[in-house]
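queue> holo job accepted (alpha-D-glucose-1-phosphate-6-vanadate)
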Amino acid sequence: MHIDTISTAPFTDQKPGTSGLRKKVRVIVQPHYLENFVESVFDALPSLTGSTLVLGGDGRYFNRQAAQIIIKMAAAHGVAKVLIGQGALLSTPAASCLIRKYKAEGGFILSASHNPGGPDEDFGIKFNASNGGPASEQITNEIYQRSLSISEYQIAAIEDVDIDSLGTRAVGPMTLEVIDPVTDYAELMEELFDLDLIAQALKEDRLSIVFDAMHAITGPYAHRLLSGRLGAPVSAVMNAIPLEDFGGGHPDPNLVHAHALAERMYQPGAPTLGAASDGDGDRNMIMGDHFFVTPSDSLAVLAANLHHLKGYRAGLKGVARSMPTSQAVDRVAKRLGIDAYETPTGWKFFGNLLDAGKITLCGEESFGTGSDHVREKDGLWAVLAWLNLIAVRQQSVADIVREHWKIFGRDYYSRHDYEGMPSAIGDSIMSLLRGQLSDLVGQQWGDNKVAIADDFSYHDPVDGSISPHQGVRIIFTNGSRIVFRLSGTGTEGATLRIYLERFEPDAKEHGHDPQKALADLIELAEQLGEVRARSNMKVPTVIT
Ligand code: VG1
Ligand code: CO
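queue> job finished
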């Protein structure tokens, strides 16, 4: 096998964001662009030589071409074996499962997750470490630093290899094994949940489900698990075929982008559970018959109930949530007498807590939930957890959540996103907010008196690292919060996110529309951040 050494020059924009490097396809396909990033990973991690690597992606446009480039570069860097999902397909949680199960040194996941796909849309690449989780901040920085000084990369001078037929083949001295993308993941789900119990409830019509795969990666996984294993009708999986452009849609499971599912769940005779996942299969949206479960509530309900489920009978070691996620799960942790951790946005911060055995369950307000079974959030895992829970408790989704609120109180919650504003305006809003922080404590608007106002800084309790500037928090003495931060996953302009929450202990007050219950905080957020005024946007682009 001949190895080419290709001269190149750095690109200055290869700093990974919240979850890997995400760019417009037109940026990624520039000569040397992807190769530079991949070389930077190999240079930063010499331990990859002689090791096993996992490779796969969400099937979006350029997925297959990128996989070929990575295989050839892995061969050139002395990787012993690449384990790839058939057709270069793997959901993010399945990739995490494979890295752990086969003791790989890491993996490349090709995805821009919930961002749209296609020649004019987005592509992404993410490196996961040997624990199966997103590379730490430190490794990510090393990769980025390397990308700024790169001058050449190495790639095997070979034809494209067969990534579609199952089995093992040689790529020079390296082994390429093409595996079924679903099997190992499905086996893991079998260990965690009582699938027979769910199947029985489906068979007896005590339970029904509809799942929207949004023409993204979870189609094959949902087919195998929901139809194949659990016996749900094939029609229970909507938009099941993965497409390079996700059918022109935005594979983000929320009420706006998964509207066909949402409509079905608000029609007479809606199924017991409605669910959706995103481009790469790590997010989940949970709905009941005429009922939407906010991701923060879903996390709290799972925390309170997980011990009912087969793989979690020993109970929870602890829980964690990202800082902007509502405090609902903290209330559960308190009652259970377990620790609750607050991390910055993005799954990479949960890894240390999971590895150290400090937590069993973690989640984010952005439709992400997961447990210590892998080191990524896991969409279908959450769906199966809810199905299992419904089968055990024999109650509707709405009843389970309302009962939860009765016990713990309700955290009214909403996120308002202002997408695609000029970066300079996004930055000006954040500076405006940061400039006010020192004066805010003690100020009062109506019932809301500021107790804490800061720019969240995370101190990792496991490795002692500090991650500053993770978002502006304004916390009131009554527990209400307003959080502002800029998105780190977009590919154009800036997206400003405002997270709002208010705690309501009184069960008689649990039936309100969250937008109304949060109206005073929504107005206060505008007064403090001038988001609408400065961005010239009258309303948020997306409200979740
Ligand atoms: C968003 C979410 C964050 C999530 C990240 C990756 O990041 O807010 O909670 O971890 O996406 O999710 P940001 O920086 O845009 O707010 V995924 O499913 O797109 O990998
Ligand atoms: Co995702």
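queue> The pocket of alpha-D-glucose-1-phosphate-6-vanadate (ligand 1) is lined by residues 18-19, 113-114, 278, 282-283, 322, 345-347, 364, 366, 368, 487-489, 497 (CB under 6 Å).
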